[in-house]
Amino acid sequence: MANTRIRFSIADGIARLVFCDVERHHAVDGQFTRELADAARQCEATAGLKAVLMTAEGKDFCVGGDLREFIAERPRIQTHVRDMTVHFHAAILTLNRLPVPVIAGVNGVAAGGGFSLVLMADLAIAARSAKFNFAYTKSGLTPDGGATFFLPRLVGPQRAFDLMATNPTLSAEQAQALGLIARVVDDEALATTLEETVAKIASAPANANGRLKGLLRASLNNSLEEQFELEARSIASGSAHPETQAAIDAFFQRTQR
Length: 257
Fold this sequence. Notes:
By secondary structure, this protein is of the alpha/beta class. It has helices spanning 30-44, 67-72, 77-97, 113-120, 147-155, 157-166, 172-177, 190-202, 208-219, 224-239, 242-255; strands at residues 6-11, 14-19, 51-56, 102-106, 109-111, 123-127, 131-133, 170-171, 183-185. The chain starts with 5 loop residues before the first strand and ends with a helix.
């Protein structure tokens, strides 16, 4: 079956997940979650992958769950939603575990599950006009997509509860101030900034940025002693990599000119 929600490609070590259901503002439905999980598995199976870039066509990033599908599936709603979360969570778990960075470029609205995808990213860059809202509880739902895992680690449990329970719409600047996204750029600069950033991240020798991702993720659960051990192993193995050796040689050749 051809993809209708996400256009997926890999070139030059960069995987691109482009949400392409513009008419429905990339609402999260059963088809979206299945395509996202399939794209994540393809990323996982690709040797030489260096980075993943997740973007959306049109005016919005992702407006979250498709409530119209919830209504259509009312006779089996609990089973339907459970099936969706199986695919959605498998996709996010796979992307989160990838040994390469995941970069999100956010335009327009990121709500519900779309907001969860932003929180999962290792680096999120938003257009100045972007808006963020969880939106779950005002419909009687609770968050999915790992939002209740990622958000408290970024802002603390009390602020996470406030954001999820009262559902304020955050501007890009407010989201950045809370540490939910890394950068805000003018709308017309978003595409160029994303391409420059993903190229720079992917160009690091010896998958240094992928290993950096692993260290940062591990630090959330490790003791300082455990983190020291991981850091020591990572920098030692990286120092022996041929790409690292070549980069060090090139550095000294530049400085000695």
